[in-house]
Design a protein that fits this description.
The protein is an alpha/beta fold. Helix content is 41%, strand content 16%. The chain contains 6 helices and 5 strands, in the order E-H-E-H-E-H-H-E-H-E-H. The chain has a 5-stranded parallel sheet with strand order 2-1-3-4-5, with helices on both faces. The chain starts with 10 loop residues before the first strand and ends with a helix. It binds cobalamin. The site of cobalamin (B12) has 25 residues, from helix 1, strand 3 and strand 4. Cobalamin binds next to helix 1, strand 3 and strand 4.
């Protein structure tokens, strides 16, 4: 696990789904988000839901959990996500991106099934992450203000 020391913009937990060994996008995303000023806790490839949950418990201030998947097995890999959310281990938004089903045709069903598994946001391109995280950061600040 690696992280940097900047807390300027907030913390994100990043990783690749449990059965998935594709590392390139993960490394590029970690680098890019650090360049944007985020603290990135990068759990790397082949990360089971339990490890995302442990990282979320250790970093309750995390803005989001970002999960990549390229091999087409994201649905099996996230089958324990709802349980981790119900237990309270994962409270922040879960964002998924990559190549999200087997084959070149991506059906709406595959995306819908992710929402049923507990995923909050599905992105098609990692370039959308900085804007999304900025929005989540503003939402978190507003929620904190209204709670105090
Ligand atoms: C390199 C590669 C490998 C390497 C990986 C080496 C490594 N250390 O990373 C090796 C040889 C190990 C490999 C293995 C396999 N691979 Co492979 N691999 C590729 C390949 C050629 C390139 C992937 C890559 O690095 N792209 C560069 C990055 C920058 O792009 P990207 O991954 O697409 O990421 C972009 C988006 O997807 C998105 N994104 C990605 N992650 C995330 C995360 C978040 C949070 C967000 C928001 C966005 C996001 O943003 C990125 C930038 O736009 C692709 C084909 C291709 N041309 O894409 C196949 C591909 C992904 N592999 C594939 C397959 C099937 C496999 C194997 C199952 C093959 C096998 N039978 O063994 C195994 C799976 C191993 C495993 N356990 O996961 C398929 C997946 C098919 C599917 N989903 O239907 C692909 C698409 C090839 C194909 N056309 O069939 N692979």
């Amino acid at each position: 696990m690696t992280s940097n020391s900047s807390h300027a913009r907030g913390t994100v937990i990043l990783g690749v789904a449990a059965s998935d060994a594709h590392a390139v996008a993960n490394q590029l995303i970690a680098h890019d988000l650090r360049e944007h000023g985020y603290t990135v806790i990068n759990l790397g490839t082949c990360t089971p839901v339990s490890e995302f949950a442990n990282a979320a418990l250790d970093n309750p201030e995390a803005l989001a959990i970002l999960i990549g998947s390229l091999n087409g097995h994201i649905h099996e890999d996230l089958r324990d996500l709802a349980k981790a959310q119900k237990s309270g281990a994962i409270r922040c938004p879960v964002v998924v991106g990559g190549n999200l089903s087997v084959g070149s045709h991506k059906s709406d069903d595959a995306i819908e099934k992710l929402f049923c598994l507990g995923v909050d946001i599905v992105l098609s391109d990692a370039a959308e992450l900085p804007e999304l995280l900025q929005r989540l950061s503003l939402d978190a600040a507003a929620a904190q203000r209204s709670a105090s």
